[in-house]
Amino acid sequence: MPDAGLHTATETPADAGDGAIRKDAPAASLNPRFAGFRCIRCGADFPTADYPEGCPICLERGYPASVAAAFSPLPRIDALPSKRGMRRFAERLPYRDFISLGEGDTPLVSLPRLAAEFGVANLHIKLEGANPTGSHKDRMSAQFIARALDRGASSVVAASSGNAGVSLAAYAAAAGIRCVIVATNKISSAWRNAIEAMGATVTIVDDPLERWRLIKDKVKSMGWMSATNYLDPPVGSEPFGVSGYRTLAYELAETPLSAAADTIIVPTARGDLLWGLYQGFHELMAEGILPRIPRLVAAEPFARLEKVMAGADYRSHFEGATALSSIGGVTVTYQSQLAVERSGGTVAAVDSDQALRDVERLARNGVYLESSAAASLTALRALRERKWRALTNVVLIGTSHGFKNSAN
With CB atoms counted within 10 Å of each terminal CB, which end of the chain scores lower, N or C? Predict the structure, then answer.
């Protein structure tokens, strides 16, 4: 692998000014099989370090792109009966030892009435709202906080007005690490109360993009670790954390009905979960565990990635209004584009009002989702209306619990 000194990876030591790691903070153990990172765009290999800005080579060339965890070798997947959740896949994660609040092993639920209504043979939903803080973000936070402990960081930060902020605050509290969440003034009192109850600080800014500028300054000047992207154009969230999303693909592959899925629909903003799913499925196909990668469909609140797939520059801003705050924003990422292309998937821009109606439709089938998560069903409707491919076995990713609707 190239020498780390040739690139601009962030290897800042623990900052001394803002808080301190608890004396009894648990240790985090880096997996000896972890071999560093590889750029998803140019293929360059990088040694173990922190790459919050993705690939330094692509960034210098003006095409920001994420880096993905690499292993040498990656052990065959093996569910450990003495453990549960993400810990079952510890040997395939960057950190084998990490703080767990019980993330993973989320339910897969059949939706037979909706399957008949939408004309598909099988329709299932993976209820990520069953994670400890009510969203898929816990899979990322567990690995990110392990990295923060290993690096000795005393402060972690994220740009979030919802799921990511609550999740990071919870895992930082468990680790005894100071946490700052940078939000806009649109954050609800429910979200803010939850974040502050766990000991995190909430900093309010007016402009969503101003969150990224503030975090970038803290990362550069004070050595804080950011769980979320702070670049514009963005690269996605911190790569140690994003690697945790691969476990969702592992769980789907364990169950015959979801392993047979031809299409998986994922509510998408900057594509961390979308990319994690693609990477996990790609690994399993390479190992002969799956015959193919399911088609990944990105459900978005207005045309962003859809325009990129039609030829627009992924580094652009794409204006649009939406009530689906968890998947809002004017930017996309290269990782989203790549996951859709390589899986043979597509993008479905959904109507926000229809997504809000689909919250109730799903609830009448026993599944209560946050409105942004219900966009997965709305995207299925859009695919059927445009007659996109033969859809037989479909899995929706229910990214967040509906109790959070009161916090929107």
Answer: N
